[in-house]
């Protein structure tokens, strides 16, 4: 079985956040979704567990970070092309997301960032692996 990752993120309004990611073409797994948690399917092995802040608080004794004031994590997703990077970042901004930094263009690597409705930072990155390794 392939290793999977489940990133747990606190959200203020579950319906708003699920709707935002739905506009980016992502779906939820209904088997792991209820009125307090939504399992956002990013790929066959990557999931974001979007939890209302009270539900998220059940898993930790620490304060829940206010992502509009402090960065607790930057989530990076790969894309198949520069165009796909732009497509996803543009869709995020058009769907209620917020800007999060400048476009990074290193030739062999291209990336853009956005913040979701809860201000979690997402990077979308394309990389020409052969060029990155000096094998043009």
Sum up the structure in keywords:
four-stranded mixed β-sheet; 24% helix; alpha+beta; 136 residues; 4 helices; five-stranded mixed β-sheet
Report on this structure.
This protein is α+β, with helices and mostly antiparallel strands and 136 residues long. Helices cover 24% and strands 32% of the residues. It is built from four helices and nine strands. It has helices at residues 14-23, 53-57, 82-94, 129-132, and strands spanning 5-11, 27-28, 37-41, 46-52, 74-78, 98-99, 104-105, 109-115, 121-127. Strands 5, 6, 7, 8 and 9 form a five-stranded mixed beta sheet that branches. Strand 2 (27-28) and strand 3 form a beta hairpin. The termini are far apart.
In terms of per-residue confidence, which ranges show pLDDT below 50 for 5 or more consecutive residues? none
* SSE topology string: EHEEEHEHEEEEH
Q: Which radius of gyration do the C-alpha atoms yield?
A: 16 Å
Counting DSSP E segments of at least 2 residues, the number of strands comes to: 9
Helix content: 10-25%
Q: What's the multimeric state?
A: single chain
Biggest beta sheet attributes: 5 strands, mixed
Summed over residues and divided by their number, the pLDDT gives a mean of 95
Class by helix and strand content?
Answer: alpha+beta
For the termini, the CA-CA separation is 34 Å
Q: What is the 3D shape?
A: globular
Number of helices: 4
How much β-strand is present in the residues?
A: 25-35%
């Amino acid at each position: 079985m392939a290793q999977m990752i489940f990133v747990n993120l606190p959200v203020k309004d579950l319906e708003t956040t699920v709707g935002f990611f739905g506009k980016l073409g992502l779906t939820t797994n209904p088997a792991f979704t209820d009125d307090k948690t939504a399992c956002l399917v990013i790929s066959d092995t990557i999931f974001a567990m979007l939890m209302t802040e009270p539900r998220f608080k059940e898993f930790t004794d620490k304060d829940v970070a206010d992502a509009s004031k402090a960065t607790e994590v930057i989530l990076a997703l790969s894309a198949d092309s520069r165009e796909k990077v732009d497509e996803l970042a543009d869709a995020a901004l058009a769907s209620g997301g917020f800007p999060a930094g400048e476009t990074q263009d290193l030739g062999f690597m291209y990336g853009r960032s956005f913040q979701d409705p809860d201000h979690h930072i997402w990077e979308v990155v394309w990389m020409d692996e052969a060029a990155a390794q000096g094998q043009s």
